[in-house]
Each structure stands twice: as structure tokens, then as C-alpha cells.
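May I ask you for just one protein sequence along with its C-alpha cells in two labelled lines?

_____
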Amino acid sequence: MNSYDVAVIGSGPGGYVAAIRCAQLGMKTAIIEKYATLGGTCLNVGCIPSKALLDSSHHYEDAIKHFEEHGIDIPGEVKVNLKQMIARKQAVVDQTTGGIDFLMKKNTIDVYQGLGSFKDATHITISGTETIEIEAKNTIIATGSKPSSLPFIAIDKERVITSTEALKLTEIPKHLIVIGGGVIGLELGQVYKRLGAEVTVIEYMDRIIPTMDAGLSKELNKVLKKQKFKIETSHKVKSVERKGNEVIVKADNKKGEELTFTGDYCLVSVGRKPYTDGLHAEAAGVKITERGQIEVNAHLQTSAKNIYAIGDVVKGAMLAHKAEEEGVFVAETIAGQKPHIDYNLIPGVVYTWPEVASVGKTEEQLQEAKVDYKVGSFPMRALGRSRASMDLDGFVKILADKTTDEILGVHMIGARAADMIAEAVVAMEFRASAEDVSRMSHAHPTFTEAIKEAALAATDNRALHI
């Protein structure tokens, strides 16, 4: 029987990063993955393939809508080759997952393919092409999550689909009905909207991206409607029925009136749920909550002191980069170090175009906590860089403490917001004030000048370009 200092169950961003950090710290490490490729949901059927399709569809949309204005003439009709688009997406996935294989070899991490389940707190059974058993002084559970559904919806993976199937369709939907106005639904909805589908988004809450700052929700809603999305908020879906190649969705609006939506595909994107099937956590003394999450303390330690859990399977935002931070945190904790994570400073991003990004507290949270704050906002359309690239939608908003001027939250929607949010994270990690950021030199012309201008606006309302 092979023995390890650490065994990691699950090879998503949290799991493989945890394994690498354990190996870097001198621990003999194994990683266990039930699927044929490493990388988990994120690399195989999540973050990476969805961004590949977003980029491809964005190129197509630019070609048919904007190239002529840029002085680029294309003879003949520009057509979508969906088969090639999906093939390119898969090539990106294959290259990325292959990179994880390389990193495992580079760090001398043993990889086991099969379903990992606890025999007891220090022994793991791996059921693959053959069944083997390994011993581990410590184990990190990183088994991730799966798409959620609603009890009355039958996911047939053909016409009533999850994000996994939406990443490999063989045709462009005529009318894609998206149940759920969160990150996944809006991103994949925009992919197929660009390619020519009619898209209707049905959201139970009173706004899309409901967990983000209300100002971002309002602006993104406005932009998507300009892009011809149909967005129905405050609608409670009560039935989804497939009839041949048609999907019929019935929902009640806030007045209690029943509405019927008919499309040829229905994407169910109502969130994700922790995945612990087959883990046999109870055999190791690991407790799972009523919500299906693994119970952990502040050190991400489970009820079994030598077993830890990270990522989507524990409480908190289901984000790849949150899982990575937790993977490093646990590896360093096992090694006797004193790492830390500030969960308030883990950014959230929606990769629509314009992109949406946020870190820290929202206005709603500050109001609820009765914190006196001030707001500095700056529109993207006031930037020379935005006019040059024709990316005029959006804004940057900075929330700062009214007394100390410390930045408490940064919320932005606009071109490259996903990259720009890192500046806000750095500023807040070092507890910068709005004035600190306002006095930093920002290259011109750039999108990040909007951050400086928003900081100026929060500092005595002295933005320079509005």
C-alpha cells in the first residue's frame, strides 16, 4: 500500500493547486480524480471552455457589426462555423488540462484515476479500472460542485440542458430560454445571442446578477436589453415541458399571472450544489451539513482533524480562485505555517461584454450594516480609450468610508473589468484610501483611468473628465 503525507480528492483548481503547494512544501502528495482528465469543472466544462466560446462569439459579432465602421471590408457573407468554434474550444480545454498533467509530473505528484472514497480517516479506496487502497496522514477534499436544478425539471441533456451541454451544442438555438439570470446563464446566453439565437432570461429575483451591487445589475440589464435580450425578472418558473423539438416553460410573474415561453432549447442555470457522491465521508467521521456542504472550521478542517475541505464543497462563493486560495491555505496550514484568506477581498466577475466585476462591500451591505460611506462614480464613455475601442457602456464605482476614506468596495462594468478589478483588490489589501488611488499615475489612454477618476469623485467630488 502506498502511503502519503497528503492525498487530495478532486483535481479542480482548488485540488490541483493544493497538491502543488503540498509538494512544494516537501510533502509526499497524491491526487485522485474520477474523470479521465484533470482540471475539474473549471477547466473541462466551466470557466475555460465558456471563455473560449465567449471570445469566439465576440470575434464573430465584431465582424458582422463593427468591422465596417473600423474600415475593414469583408467580401461575401460572414458565417458561423459552429463545429469549428466548438472544436477550438475543445482544443483550448485539451491544452489546459494537459498543462495540469505536466504540473503533476513536474512536482512529482502521484495521480490516481478513479472514484476516491474513505475507508476510514486515514485510508482511501480508489475505484477505477482496478480497485486499490492508499494511506494518507492528511486528506484534502476538493470534490467541487454540480449544476443544480429545480425538482420539477427533467434535464434530458438534449433540449433541456445544463451548462455542460450548452458548451457542445451542434446547432445554434432559434430561441434559447435561460432559467436563471446569474453568471452562467448570462454568459452562455450571450454566446448564443451573438451567434443569432433569440434569448429569453427568466429570473426569480427582482434583478439579474442579484448577489452583486444593484447598480451593476441595473446597468447590465440596460446593456443586455440594448443587445436584444428578453429579460423577465420576478418570475417564478413552475413547469418545463418538452414536446418534440420544443420546450415550453410556464412561469408566474409578480402579479401572479401565468406566462408561457416556447423555445427549442432551455438552459437551466439556477446555481450549483456541492458534490460529495460516493465519498463515504461518514466513514472518516466527516460531517456534512443539511445543505450538502462539508462542515469546516476557520482552518478549513473538518470534524476529522486530519481531513480538510476546500472550494465549492464548503461554504462561500463557488469561484475557482477562491478554491485556489483555500488550497494554498490548507497546504500551508498542514505544513505548520500561519496563512490567511480575506474572503471579503475575493473578487467576483461576470464575463459578459461588457464585463462586470466587484470586490468588497456593496451599497446594500453597507446600508444594512449602517456604515456611513461616500460614493465616487465615473462613466466609461468619458474615457478616450473607450471611445477609441467603441466600448462606451458601463462605469466604475468606488465606495469609501465617509470618515476615514478607506475603500470599502469597488464595483465596475465595462471593457476589461475582469482584469481591472485586480487593481481594486491590491488597493483594498493594503487598506488604501480613495485619495491614495486618486494620486496614483494611470497610463493614458487606458480603461483603468476610470478607477482613478472614480477615486477622485469619491474624494471631494473632483473627477477631472466629467
Q: What stands out?
A: The longest strand covers residues 131-141. Residues 114 and 130 are 8 Å apart (CA to CA). Residues 82-106 form the longest helix (25 residues).
